[in-house]
Amino acid sequence: MIPQDTGKPRPSVRIVHLNAAAFTALISGDLEAANRACPVPVSDYLVGPEPRGTWQRRLAQALEDPSTAAWTTGIVRDEVTGAAVGRAGFHGPPDASGMVEIGYAIDPLHRRQGYARAALEALLTRAAAEPDVRRVRVTISPDNVASIGLALPYGFVEVGEQEDEEDGLEIIYDLAM
User: Fold this and answer.
1) Which terminus of the chain has a lower count of CB atoms within 10 Å, N or C?
2) Where are the domains of the chain?
3) What's the pLDDT at 1?
4) Within the chain, which residues score under 70 in pLDDT?
């Protein structure tokens, strides 16, 4: 379900998937090395400390099973400007019940410009096109009002909560596909 159009133009984005070499370079914090290893130019934010934990988890997945690359976090790229504006993707392929979990984070320099919404819509479109996906999950900190306000109009429903070792308390929201 895509909410009613607000009349604001939405950025055109593509989620660029990464391999183990790209994740390794992003984890290093070395912008030059990351730009050599990644399929698109990256920003200081993407090699900074905030996304590092995500890159480390995705590197472990890529090393364990390279075929999962299309189901993990990638770089959100503005298709008009070519800028890397954040990261988004699935936490992995659909599980046995058909559930995929999504995550997204936009570079602070590019927030409040529609990129999170565009990335969320790209993820939902991909999930809807996959016959093995029956449910999409997102977990959000209860004080992250912007992400809650983004997810709920798409039909996500609160189904519980969890304590995440990295992020603390999170509310679990699911969307049936």
Assistant:
1) N
2) 13-131
3) 54
4) 1-8
